[in-house]
Design brief:
The structure is a homodimer.
Chain A: H1 6-16, H2 19-30, E1 33-34, H3 35-42, H4 46-58, E2 62-67, E3 70-75, H5 78-89, H6 110-119
Antiparallel strand pairs in A: 1-3, 2-3
Chain A binds a DNA duplex (30 and 30 nucleotides) through helix 4.
DNA sequence: ATAATATATGCAGAGTTTTGAATATACGAT
DNA sequence: ATCGTATATTCAAAACTCTGCATATATTAT
């Protein structure tokens, strides 16, 4: 029976404790997304987004998968899903309302192209 | 249906994301403790401990209760208990072993006095 | 009143995180 | 080979966090 490793857990939480990174993770709860999507969603410059993705990846929250010239990021596993559920869905005693994921399409990646075409055939 | 308040949640997590503060919270999971206890447990100077307690208090994780010249801190509510359970008891994919709370008595507060006397009658 | 004890607050230097900007890589298309 | 697109890395200045130290307050005991 060992004692929790407060350093480690603290470091993980530190990565989580950031509005933009939380928002990225929240977006990835629904589905994997490529960098360009997140760029559009967050309205932040691409290097900035890549940087946050790197931190999340290095902390083990997400994984990347190259697909053609795009890189898709998804949550690492179901444990991360539950953590995010716990953290984002029941906002402690504090402010913030319940659920309500962010939507967003409209970048030029293959995935969007597919979706748009599907809905938009002349 | 509103979207989570990432700023708020991020700020809460930021307070959690600190080894000493996690350790304090872990200690308070079992029972309320006075400052002097935590001082002994953490082996940190009293002003330092009080400062961390303040952050935890202001973030809504703990509450204080004056009792004579001591101040006892306890977790704010059962939601905090569950958060801590989730965070400290199943250490993500990361390192750290399972459970195993920290023990510690031996300061001169009334509570300790009681305990020690109870076990230690001549 | 005065002293002693328990806890809180304020402040500052060292260290770390954040974010923007420039640049690099990798890959597919021409 | 060259170009264009998607993503990654590097660096540095500003902002913020951490922690130690000095000091303040509040309560009880003498």
């Amino acid at each position: 029976m060992s004692v929790p490793n407060y350093e480690q857990i603290g470091n993980q939480l530190k990565v989580l404790a950031h509005p933009v990174r939380l928002r990225i993770l929240d977006a990835l709860r629904r589905d994997a997304e490529c960098v360009c999507h997140l760029e559009t969603l967050l309205e932040k410059p691409q290097p900035y987004v890549s940087q946050q993705l790197r931190l999340l990846r290095e902390a083990g929250f997400i994984q990347d998968e190259k697909e053609g010239q795009n890189v898709y990021y998804r949550l690492m596993n179901d444990e991360v899903q539950s953590w995010l559920g716990a953290i984002l869905d029941d906002p402690q005693d504090l402010t913030a309302g319940p659920l309500g994921h962010t939507q967003l399409v409209n970048c030029a990646c293959p995935k969007c192209a597919r979706t748009v075409t599907a809905l938009d055939v002349t």
